[in-house]
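Deliverable D5.2: sample structural annotation.
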Amino acid sequence: MSRSQKSSKSSSVRAMLPFNKSFVIFLSKTVRKSLTYGKKCCKISVNADFISRFKEETLKMKNIGVLTSGGDAPGMNAAVRAVVRAGCEKGLNVYGIYRGYEGLMDDKMELMDLRSVSDIINRGGTKLFSARSPRFTTEEGMQQAIKVCKEKNIDGLVVIGGDGSFRGARDLSLRGIPCIGIPGTIDNDIACCDYTIGYDTCLNTIMQMVDRIRDTTASHDRCSVVEVMGRRAGYLALNAGIACGATTILIPEVEYDFQRDVIDRIRRTQKTGKMHFVIIVAEGIGGVEELAKKIQAETGIESRATVLGHVQRGGSPSVKDRVVASEMGYYAVQLLLKGIGNRVVAMQKDRIVDFDIFEALNMKKSIDLDLYKIAHEISI
């Protein structure tokens, strides 16, 4: 055999070592004696029938499910739509599972088609509804979910939610149900992701609400103390605070001193002629009612507290949330089609990538302290 013939045959075989590690394992078990490694080329001949049989044996994904879990986030519907349509286009049966893991355990699902997800990309919330499920965290609940998957012949799941939802997906994967996680949370607190579905829409909602609060605050020379969501993370507060020109931004990641970071900043700003103030406080700090009372007592400025609450979860998703959610939903289906599970889809540096769920859950995410510094230097 000539060098060019060897190269051609080697290339053709490498092209067939494609989809995932299962292929390599399959080959090593069935035709190990025909393979050589190192500098030599692969000496086996793999015909089209072999490839077809391999795909049939190892890529058995016929039925998949999609669910939304935990707190809802704008853009979840776009992700559901992408999963359903990408799956249908590949010949899969796609089941929409209602109310998260609760619905999975109770077999609350329906077979979806292309038209099942029409006209939902522009809607906030989630067509599939959502729920938190303490029952699912028990071994009994987990086994019930697995039982339903087996009865329905569900070969894989796409789970849209936050880190709590991913822990459930991890546990199902460990028990033989391949799962792909899609980060859907307004908090943007998933460590492996630069960006989570719902974050952009939520930021814009906060900005619009605080802009309205500022109108009345300025009219009365008041101080408004506004609590925004984010759980134990300050990403919403920090970025919304910059966008709204907040006098002070309080986040869980940075310890604050009431006198230095609130009162002294207000008084310093007063000296420049400004008589109204907006303080943005992350949910993880809380206590905005008490904080407003303390500010009024110290400065004599009439101060009001506002908790924006669940208005932050609602609203039509932004362009960014719709596009990113669509990309992530499509990507998740491609992973399942390759026989790959136990992964989290993520966006890093504007690219869609994926991580092992264990790795993703063990990562730590830090706040941008440079951005925090900028916020306080320009908000005077």
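Annotation notes: Residues 1-46, 53-58 have pLDDT under 50 and may be disordered. The longest strand covers residues 63-68.
The annotation will be released with the project's public dataset once the embargo ends.
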